[in-house]
Amino acid sequence: MSDRDELFKRLATLEQTQGRTSRRLRILGAFVILQTILIAYLVLPIVGIAKHPLTVQAGSVEIIDRNGIVRAELSAELGQSLLALRDATGQSQVLLRTNETGFSTLELFDRASDRKSVVLFSGSKRSFLEFRAPDDGRRVSIQAGEGELGLRRLDERGQVVPTP
Fold first, then answer.
1. Which of 44, 58, 71, 113 could form a disulfide with 50 if both were Cys (CB 3.0 to 4.6 A apart)?
2. Residues 92, 85: contact at Cβ < 8 Å?
3. Is the Cβ–Cβ distance between 138 and 154 less than 8 Å?
4. Could you count the other beta carbons within 10 Å of the beta carbon of residue 85?
5. By three-state DSSP, how is residue 90 classified?
6. How many other CB atoms are there within 10 angstroms of residue 71's CB atom?
7. pLDDT tens digits for 66-117?
8. Adjacent-strand bridge partners of 127
9. Which comes out higher in pLDDT, residue 61 or 115?
10. Residue 145, SS3?
């Protein structure tokens, strides 16, 4: 056998080996791609990334400042939705609530006394806007509802005060 024949024989063996290796790599690559597609198809919808890329789901979310104080809360629990905004001490200053019975309230608090100073209530049968004195609980209420419409003054116990 000449050197030339020997060279052709080695070249043929190398091509066969290269072909088998290339075929194995193509099969392995196809398997990896199929496995990646399968994982993406099964796992991503469970995590929620595939359907809603901008959705975060939770029962409640708290916004905490650098000092560890809860400054805002958004929650939906026990048939009620709540948005609470708090001051630097963690005391509620604004509450927005809705519930499954159909009423909504917006409550604004007086920072000095931690009492509600303004309440806006909206329900299926009546609505009112109430302003409360921060010192003793007296209040003025504007109401509209079934059979009632008007302005009322209330004492600290919630009793109607006759208008002079």
1. 44
2. yes
3. yes
4. 15
5. coil
6. 16
7. 889 999 998 888 888 988 899 888 888 898 989 888 789 888 888 776 677 8
8. 122, 144
9. 61
10. strand
